[in-house]
Amino acid sequence: MTSSSPLLLLVLILALSSSSPVLFVAARAGAGNYYHVAGSRLTHIRMYMHETFAGPNATLIMSVPSPLGGNATFGSVGVLDNELRNGRDRQRSALLGRFQGVFAGAGQVNPPGLVSAINLVFTAGEYRGSTLAMLGPVLAFGVPIERALVGGTGKFRMARGYCVMTFLETTSPVSLVNQLDLFVEMHPAAAY
Ligand SMILES: *[C@@H]1O[C@H](CO)[C@@H](O)[C@H](O)[C@H]1NC(C)=O
Ligand SMILES: *[C@@H]1O[C@H](CO)[C@@H](O)[C@H](O)[C@H]1NC(C)=O
């Protein structure tokens, strides 16, 4: 992996253009509206995703660069195993789980058009042993990224909802942190 790989450059662009405060307000507004749907109840889970995008301990790798070369992202594939923590300060926060997934550049006409399939794997805390499945696009960088929570296991059996991911800051030359706000409709009766 080189520092000039297109997807990594896009990650950096994401890192340098954030709008985090605005996003969370929008997410809360959405949740507020959803509360009025009869019989539904949303649980808000906030976590912080810590990503190391280069170096020996990288948690994101560009496995397949675009065969089109240059700065193209179409056809590229990457894999992530980022950390989920309960705080934005990596040293002072507890590991809650992993943000594991694959993404591919599927935007030929309008890049990046990333397709992402991600498992939120909880290894500690209230949801230890449970997972959430998340699907969704990354149509643009520098804006909040919203994805669908399409199901889960353990305490998240039959769960659904959405996740809004907001870039917070770079934490070193090779790492960054995003805030994750999950709004999940739980189905406790389905949990064991
Ligand atoms: C990578 O991780 C190892 C093991 O935790 C650590 O000793 C090393 O300092 C890390 N390297 C960098 C560049 O962070
Ligand atoms: C890639 O993008 C950078 C920044 O926009 C630009 O300077 C460079 O010429 C591009 N490279 C190619 C091969 O298109």
UniProtKB/TrEMBL annotation:
Keyword Cell membrane on entry: no
Cellular compartments annotated: Secreted, Extracellular space, Apoplast
Keyword Transcription regulation listed: no
Pfam family, one: Dirigent
Any one cellular-component term (Gene Ontology): apoplast
InterPro entries to which the protein is assigned, alphabetical: Allene_oxi_cyc_Dirigent (IPR044859), Dirigent (IPR004265)
Signal peptide start and end residues: 1-19
Keywords in alphabetical order: Apoplast, Secreted, Signal
Any Gene Ontology biological process: phenylpropanoid biosynthetic process
Its job: Dirigent proteins impart stereoselectivity on the phenoxy radical-coupling reaction, yielding optically active lignans from two molecules of coniferyl alcohol in the biosynthesis of lignans, flavonolignans, and alkaloids and thus plays a central role in plant secondary metabolism.
Family from the record: Belongs to the plant dirigent protein family.
Quaternary data: Homodimer.
The name this protein goes by in its record: Dirigent protein
The organism of origin for this protein: Brachypodium distachyon (Purple false brome)
Gene that this sequence comes from: LOC100835135
